[in-house]
Amino acid sequence: MQNSKSMRAVGYYEYLPITHPDSLLDLEIPVPTPQGHDLLIRIEAIAVNPADTVVRQYNPATEGPYILGWDASGVVVEVGPECTLFKPGDEVFYAGSVIRPGNNSEFHLVDERIVGRKPKTLGFAEAASLPLTTITAWESLFDRLGIPHNPEINRNKSILIIGAAGGVGSIAVQLAKLAGLTVIGTASRPESAEWVKELGAEIVINHYEDFLPQLQQHGLDTVDYIFCLNKVDWNRLTQVIVPQGKICFIIDNDPPVELGQFLGKSVTVVWENMFTRSTFQTKDITEQHHLLNQMAELIDEGKIRTTVTERLSPINAANLKLAHAKMESRVAIGKIVLEHF
């Protein structure tokens, strides 16, 4: 049964260009009641991702308004009857699930098994910038590509991260560096290239130019792993991936790739969607809880830094429109965070 109280939220009823006055709306909706493994979170801060803009375009509201948002930090105010991991008063951060309402609201329900404890050394705004990008980068590097966590094993191995200045790339650069890999990041502007270097990439190349000549300028002909975050000419990947190397993608390509081009080198091609575990309620769904807690430890130890580059307040339709517009421009560096309703 739903709570009779109402809360503020930001959502939409139909897709409209972000410049349209009604593209995102300030709303009043009911406060939900936790069931099962649900936590009811009081939202303190949220972050905006490219996923928000994509879902807004392709997912019309059917029953009531559509609420976006897949990055948040906040405080647990109520727990469902099956909860064992958290209690009221706990400070948490998480990305949520695409098959449930998003977290652009004062209160939000989320399965505790995909929630982590907020890093103690970060405020809510900094913490909200991390979950989606952390889960995507962590699962891509360690689950999909199978990169060992041991720097000794990874010595003399390299990874090319295409689109390294964005939200996921910013975390992936740091995690790959921590794992002992030689990190090559791509960026196309001086400010984004500088950001990638600050995060730990030894080499930065331009993703609008052929990769091989740029790598050869740094004494490299191949890389052991590729993490592809942007659409790219896949022939460039074939040229530089080492025989029996591995490539992970988080987006589809246009036009579709001919996977046969990787046959000659026996390349492993894998995909990452951080919502797979929550969407299909996989047996290992709690892995996201564990990895977020591990990330919190790395942050508290000073080994990983937050990727916030812009903060807006309050959380309302006007500021979310600004954030969506920057996401759609595809020139954003790091993460945009909104705090306080």
TrEMBL record:
<dbReference type="InterPro" id="IPR051603">
    <property type="entry name" value="Zinc-ADH_QOR/CCCR"/>
</dbReference>
<keyword id="KW-0560">Oxidoreductase</keyword>
<dbReference type="InterPro" id="IPR014182">
    <property type="entry name" value="ADH_Zn_typ-1"/>
</dbReference>
<keyword id="KW-0694">RNA-binding</keyword>
<keyword id="KW-0963">Cytoplasm</keyword>
<protein>
    <recommendedName>
        <fullName>Zinc-type alcohol dehydrogenase-like protein</fullName>
    </recommendedName>
</protein>
<keyword id="KW-0007">Acetylation</keyword>
<comment type="similarity">
    <text>Belongs to the zinc-containing alcohol dehydrogenase family. Quinone oxidoreductase subfamily.</text>
</comment>
<dbReference type="GO" id="GO:0008270">
    <property type="term" value="F:zinc ion binding"/>
</dbReference>
<dbReference type="InterPro" id="IPR020843">
    <property type="entry name" value="ER"/>
</dbReference>
<dbReference type="Pfam" id="PF08240">
    <property type="entry name" value="ADH_N"/>
</dbReference>
<keyword id="KW-0862">Zinc</keyword>
<dbReference type="GO" id="GO:0003723">
    <property type="term" value="F:RNA binding"/>
</dbReference>
<dbReference type="InterPro" id="IPR036291">
    <property type="entry name" value="NAD(P)-bd_dom_sf"/>
</dbReference>
<keyword id="KW-0521">NADP</keyword>
<dbReference type="InterPro" id="IPR002364">
    <property type="entry name" value="Quin_OxRdtase/zeta-crystal_CS"/>
</dbReference>
<dbReference type="InterPro" id="IPR011032">
    <property type="entry name" value="GroES-like_sf"/>
</dbReference>
<dbReference type="GO" id="GO:0005737">
    <property type="term" value="C:cytoplasm"/>
</dbReference>
<dbReference type="GO" id="GO:0016491">
    <property type="term" value="F:oxidoreductase activity"/>
</dbReference>
<dbReference type="InterPro" id="IPR013154">
    <property type="entry name" value="ADH-like_N"/>
</dbReference>
<dbReference type="InterPro" id="IPR013149">
    <property type="entry name" value="ADH-like_C"/>
</dbReference>
<dbReference type="Pfam" id="PF00107">
    <property type="entry name" value="ADH_zinc_N"/>
</dbReference>
<comment type="subunit">
    <text>Homotetramer.</text>
</comment>
<keyword id="KW-0479">Metal-binding</keyword>
<feature type="domain" description="Enoyl reductase (ER)">
    <location>
        <begin position="22"/>
        <end position="338"/>
    </location>
</feature>
